[in-house]
Amino acid sequence: MNIQELETIVHHKLPIKMVILNNGSYGMVRQFQQSYFQERYASTYQGYSAPYFEKVAQAYGIQSMTIGETEESTQRIHMPVTLSIHSNIRDYEAYIEETPDFIEKLGTHPQSCFVVDENVWNIYAKNLLKDLPKEQTIILPINEDRKNLDTVQELYDQLVERSAKRNLTLISFGGGILQDITGFVASTIYRGINWIYVPTTLLAQADSCIGSKTSLNYRKYKNLIGTFFPPTSIHIYTPFLKTQLDADFFSGFGEVIKLHLMGGRDHYHQLVELSPDIIKRQPAALLQSIQQSLQIKLNYMAGDEFDTGRRNLLNYGHDFGHALESTSSFAMPHGQAVIFGMLAANIISLQRGLLTENLEQEIAEKLLLPSLLTRPSTDAMNADAMVAAMKKDKKRIGDYLALIMMDSNFEFIRVNDLTPDEVFAALNILGKRLEEL
Ligand SMILES: NC(=O)c1ccc[n+]([C@@H]2O[C@H](COP(=O)([O-])OP(=O)(O)OC[C@H]3O[C@@H](n4cnc5c(N)ncnc54)[C@H](O)[C@@H]3O)[C@@H](O)[C@H]2O)c1
User: What's the pLDDT tens digit per position in 350-387?
Assistant: First the structure.
């Protein structure tokens, strides 16, 4: 966490629970104290004592704080209990859950119907999900090919058969695909019902769960249909991530990398340091990166929920990414395609003189290439097919192609003058690089 993030949390009065230790995060508080606190509370300041931190908490609306130096608490660096998200549709909360008790409570939610990703059900039916009422639970086999109107209709049928009413609450457990399907259903059936979402993948916990978007694929076009509809609440419980397959986990890590790059140089460096622990799925590292990713996404979404301006920059990596998903007939997992997209976009930034060679290589070698577990097939990388797919981009304006690029100051811009020749050249360079690995 850096000083700007703490400022954002404080500014929005987001309740946070903070564990302050004699390590990096302690240093952060020292910085915070220097810039904001000492002036106002200089007379009561008595070193880094508990009353001092309590004063910080009171002054800045921080809900609670724990100060500890034990081995166990070093595992928990800082943790917001709740992230409050403003939406023009309805405000909502993302809860970071420390125990699975919330699942038992959800099981007793009145007028509810549960939709669980079949793989998640197969793993957790006997333990974490044992309290879900079976007769109210729909198990849905999912994959990217099923993120479409047919599956939505299947779900409408099942809900109508169960005589679902307007006061129904849909509660879904799964990754981004299940989120998109159930979010779309919740936003359309009876013109909108309550929807609680429990994300079970890194991608969904660190990124897609907030932002109000629901998306369906139409024929071979990715995310062509959709609505804006936030869940009523989100419950993030990181132990679900232990059972994710590597390919899917690294897909989520792709979005985590994207958000940390978009958060600026400090976040990028933090992620490079944290990534060995994230990859080991170490709980503190996961929590820290999820929390930071959500906060960075929120900063980009502020004032642009409906994606008409700055929020669009969050599509960094997606121009090539969506095209690759389409040319691979969705064999390429979303976040993996985004990693590919960031590699390609950075090569073009380098060639346009926006990104230095050193930084382009460093980002590729330290984060992007080691996380690209799924290699695209030669057919999927066919340059003509990629250009044709990029032309289908629903946000493209005019004759050229669109691309979001980063520069050496970690600033992001969208250009609308990308030429097919630049795409061919970048794919050529990237293809050779992947062959050499
Ligand atoms: N709505 C949005 O804002 C938004 C944003 C980004 C991405 N997306 C969409 O999200 C989708 C990708 O989501 P994803 O990466 O979360 O993957 P996913 O939903 O495709 O899940 C990946 C695989 O993991 C399984 N799985 C889920 N949770 C598991 C767990 N805890 N343990 C073991 N297996 C588990 C699933 O059954 C599936 O086979 C794409 O369709 C993408 O377009 C949506």
Answer: 999 999 999 999 999 999 999 999 999 999 999 999 99
Task: Measure 200 CA to ligand 1 centroid, in angstroms.
Answer: 8
Q: Does 61 score more than 70 pLDDT?
A: no
The b-or-e profile of 297-310 (16+ CB within 10 A means b, else e) is bbebbeeebebeee
Q: In this predicted structure, which of 97-101, 110-114, 322-326 has the lowest mean pLDDT? A: 97-101
Between the CA of 362 and the centroid of ligand 1 the distance, in Å, is 28
Atom 11, ligand 1: residue with shortest CA distance = 176
Residues with CB under 6 A from ligand 1: 117, 119-120, 123, 142, 144, 147, 174-180, 200-201, 203-204, 207-208, 211, 213-215, 223, 240, 243-244, 248, 251-252, 334-335
CATH code 3.40.50.1970 region(s) in the chain: 83-244
User: Once rounded to an integer, what is the mean pLDDT over residues 125-135?
Assistant: 96
- The CATH-assigned architecture of domain 83-244 is 3-Layer(aba) Sandwich (3.40)
249-435 — its CATH code? Answer: 1.20.1090.10
Q: Using alpha carbons, list the distances in angstroms from residue 107 to 102, 160, 171, 174, 187.
A: 9, 20, 9, 16, 22
Residue holding tokens 């950075």?
A: 346
Phi, psi values for residue 138, rounded to 5°: -105, 125
Q: What is the pTM of this model?
A: 0.83
